[in-house]
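Lab notebook: predicted structure, single chain.

Context: the supervisor wants predicted structures on file for every construct in the current expression panel, including those that have not yet been purified. This is the next one on the list. No modifications to the sequence; it matches the entry in the shared construct table.
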Amino acid sequence: MQTYGVEAVKNRLLFDNPWWALDEQAPQKFKQPPKRIFFNDFAYKIENGDSGRAVALVGPRRTGKTVMVRQMVARLIEGGEPPRHVLLASLGVPTYWSAGLHQIIELFVQRNARTSQGKTLYAFLDELQYMPDWESELIKAAKDFPQVRLIGVLSAGTPLAEEIEENDPGYDVAVLPSISFAEFLRFRGREKELFGGDPANHKLAFNQANLPQLNKEFNYYINYGGFPESVLAKVQGAPSPLFVRDTLIERLLHKDVASFFGINDLKGLSHLFTLLAYNTGREVSIEELARETKIAKNTLRKYLDYLESAWLIRRLHRVDKNAKRFQRAVAFKVFITSPCWYAALFGPVMPDDEVYERLVETAVYCQWLGVSHRISALTYASWRGGKVDLVGYSDLAQQKTRAPEPNLIIEMDWKQKLSGFGEGPQTVTEFVRMNCNGEENTLLLTQNLIRTGYHRHVRIQSVPASLYAYGLVNEMS
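Prediction complete. Output recorded below exactly as produced.
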C-alpha cells in the first residue's frame, strides 16, 4: 500500500488555487457577489496588520466566510498582487491533515522563493478548526513566516468576544455573524424603497407610513433571513423557506466538527441546542438544563462552551438591581445567534404569537454579534421581583467595576403596555434612577409606537424594534 505525501499536497494546492495559472500581465477581473458590511473591516485587518501577526475570520457556518475570503482574493489580485502570491487552502480536506499548517505554508513560500523577495504573500486557511492546536500553530506560523499574511477561517473553537476584549489572543479577529437586518433589506432591494435618503451613508429619510412594510420585512427576517442562501435566492415576496426548513439544522450543527472537539453524544448535543433555541431570550440555569436534558452538569458546561464557540448560542451575564455582576453565575440569559433558527426547528411565527417578542429581542441582540466591544459589554438584569431585558455598558472593563454605570437600557414592549398611558415602565425607571448618571439611553422597543417622554424624571424613548434593529448598522460599519 502507498501513502500520500508532499506531492499529493502540492497537487491539491494547485486544485484549490486555479488563479495561479493566470497571466500576471493581463488585468484580472473576478465576478463579485454582494459584499457583507463586515468586508471592509476584514480587508483593513489584512492590509494593515502587523508583520508576523495573523488574522482569524470567525463566525457560524453558512454566513459567507468562504465567499468573503474569495472576494478578498479577488481584491488582492485585481489590486496588482501576483496571483501566485495568494493561497487558499480548505483544511477540511483530509489531504492536508498529515502535512500540517507549518508545512503547507513552507511549501507555499518555497514555491514563490524567486519572486517574493521584499513582497507580502497571502495565505487564506479555510476550515482551520480541523487542524489540531490551530491557535498555537497559527501564531507560530505567523512568527516563523513574517513575510506571509496568514488568515485563518473558523466556524468552531473560536474565542468569545469577552475573551478577546480581556486578553489579546495573539492574532487579530474579524467576525462574520448571521445577516443583519440592514443587510437583509439591502440584499432584497428594499432598503432604498423603505428609507429613501442615502442609506449607504446612514443618511435616512424614513417615512413613518412605511412602518407596516418595514415590520413585514422584519417578520420575514426573523423567520427566514439569517443566512445568505435564504435571502439572495428570492427578492420578491417572502424569502424562500426551503433553506431554513430543509437545510439549516443539518448544515449548521456540523456534527463532524462536534466529534472533532471530543463530543460524541451528538443526540444529547442536538437536544440541548433545541431546548436552548426554544427558550431564546429567557433566563435559564444549569440546574434546569441538567434536569431537562439528563446530562451531567460538567458535561453540560462542556456542551454549552462548544455551542457558544461554534457561534450557535450566546450566553449573557446577569447583573442585579444595582447593575453589578453576580460573583457566582447560577443563571444566564440565552440567545440563538440568528432568530431564524427558531423557525427551522419549530416552524415560522407571526407577530401575535406569544414567543414573538422573545424572537424580536433575539433579532435585536444578534445585530451586535459582529461588534465585539459592544457584545462583550451587554448583560441583562434580574432580581427577585424585577428584570430588565438588556443592560449595556461603555465597555467590558466598565461593566466589571464595583460601581458600574450602564449607558444602555432596553426593555421589550412589543405589546406596547409600558409605552401607553398606564403606570408606565416602573421597574425600568427605578433601575435607571438607582444606577445611571443621566447620560444613558433608555429604550422601550415597540411594535409601531414612536414617542419620547419622561417617567419620574427619566427620559424614555419608545422606538419600533424593526427601526432600531435596522439602525444598529451604524455600529457595525
